Amino acid sequence: MRPSARFGILSGFIAVLWIVVVARAFQVQVIEHDHWESCAIQRQGDIRPLAANRGEIATSDGAILAETVSNRSLAVDPKISKDPEALAQALAAHGIVDEKVFLAQMKKQSDRRFVWVDRGLVDEAAVDELTAQFPELIAQTEAKRLYRRGEAASPLVGLVNREEEALGGLEVMFDQHLRGTGGKLVEVSDRYNDHFQGLETYVLEQPEPGGDLVLAIDSRMQEIAYAHLSEAMDQQEASSGFAVVTRPQTGEVLALVSLPSADPLDPSTWAAESLKMRAATDVFEPGSVYKIVPFSAALEAGRLSAAELIDCMDGEREVPGGRPIRDDHPCAVVPAWEVMAQSSNIGAGLIAERVGAEGFYRMERAFGFGLSSEVGLPGEGRGRIPEPSAWSLRSLVTMAFGQEVSCTGIQLAMSYGAIANEGLLMSPLLVRELRDASGNVMERREPAVVRRVLRPAVAAAMRTILRGVVTEGTGSAAEVEGYGVAGKTGTAQKYVKELGRYSKESYVASFVGFAPWDDPEVLCVVVLDEPRGDIYGGSVAAPVFRQILADVRPLLGGGEVLASITAPGPDPNGDSHRAVPEARGLTAPSARRVVLESELLPRFEGEGDRVLATRPPAGTRLLPGSVVTLEMDPAAEAGRMPDLAGLSLRDAWLRVDAVGAVPEVVGAGWVIAQSPKAGTLIRPGESCRIELSAKDCRAWKEFQAVEERFAGEFASGALLRESQTPRRVAGR
Q1: In terms of Cα–Cα distance, which of 83, 283, 51, 289 is closest to 180?
Q2: 12, 338, 419, 595: which has the fewest Cβ within 10 Å?
């Protein structure tokens, strides 16, 4: 073979080999790049999931119930710890660990290089101090769930554990929307597969944050309902309880409280019983609050009038199939409205018999009993409403006063809401909006009518009858002075399945009502399970109802003027402190409200109708959650006009309303004049003229001075550096 031929063959072979090498390199580096990169990363370190920032849960008034924050967790390297006892003492001094438990853990895992100490919310200042003192401590920034309303809202909102698992409440129901899409993080390790602080980590896939929820809940009403229900639970030693506050015209759920509840900062309390929203999950025999069913059915069918006389047989009636039915408040022949007012079981049974089994059953279903309310909470119960074919000879009579049936608190709220709302049953509106991570509204939920239950005239008649329960009957303790409450008490014996009879020791005490009775704007359900003191709904649940309504009433607004009054917000310049509000002269409920609006906690001292002074004084700046002592004045005269000079419209309006006068507002800004003068005796309903000006009072001059100071700081650049740090505004 000639040399030229051999050279050609060799050149061709080299060219083919070069093409194969290039092709293989292209395959590895381009086509199979992701595969080989993943293999390399797996050899160099661990691929760990990177959780997305979970979305916020906010209330209608802009308060954040749940949010994700960045916070450092603490871990320790036991191998390099020189003095475990000193470390344990330092950690225990900051409330991070139990000293003995931590030392036992260190001894048990002494051969490891990374052991978690605390992955909960840890004070950042404590982390700085501890890591500077003990080099074996490792601080690692993590995304953590923060629940700002604590136990007051945990059954409603739910919780998320360290494994990113949703537990209860809205966190479970809207987990997919809130969770977002996770990413991937690489943690580089050495050849011993040990991980150290400071080794390289990088993100393979960026997480996509979750969306937000905006609720119909009002955070201030939630706190009010929680405070009063908690107090009643302690006083009555009840095993559990719940409270529901709604707006009957729209079905909006303004407050939803369940006790006992879980503490978001204490995982040992995260039991299923503490995380369920009892108003939605627990079904119970309602007792006398169920008497709206026979009354509504009979009125709707034209077989009853409120004034018609009913023979209640002096409080005892023989009914086949069981013991005689007895009344706690025996009656003879009384008008139908008084049957409800005195809560006569015998009278309710007689009225139910007028409409018969089918008519009674149709009204039960029309009110929504036995059907899901679709409130949007996990584990919602339907209750038990048996069909007439399954009834005994006495079922119609006993069902008339709430035995042999069961329901939920939400069903009771919506059924009474239909009476308050001209006969229209509304769907409970708990979640108003679903938003994406950028704050854009993805879904907006509007009030929805389920069905018409009653004719408007029948609903009006029922409101009048329920008003009589409060003015003339068992619900007198629910009355809110000047508001006009209508409602019904309930005292239900609990059925003991093992004994086959109703208990003589265990009861459910309840009150359901609304106000004002002739034009309802708010409705509330209060239920206490197994109270140990008094057992009657009229003396156990009705006072809680009154306390809640008295405190939420000012938050509902009273026309265009009140609607324009807004609660004081955070300092626009980033100061997290809150100013103690001016509360002198206010009644206890009004004072509690204005203090809670400032994100401070009220504590009352002494007895009296009005606040004499606050400690610390008004204007003092405190951290959110600080206690403000309100000194009550036992000698305060309820009928004297307070001094309004220099007050804002909001504060002046509250003081005038507190003494029973009717404000007439002229102008805008701060009060410069009033009529009558301060100290003048006034009659309830008397008019009070309030003159306002934005430029002629001391408050305006002080405001101008502050504004000028801020303007100077901006000009000098003092606030520019602060403004370079972006902040997220709560509530968007």
Answers
A1: 51
A2: 12
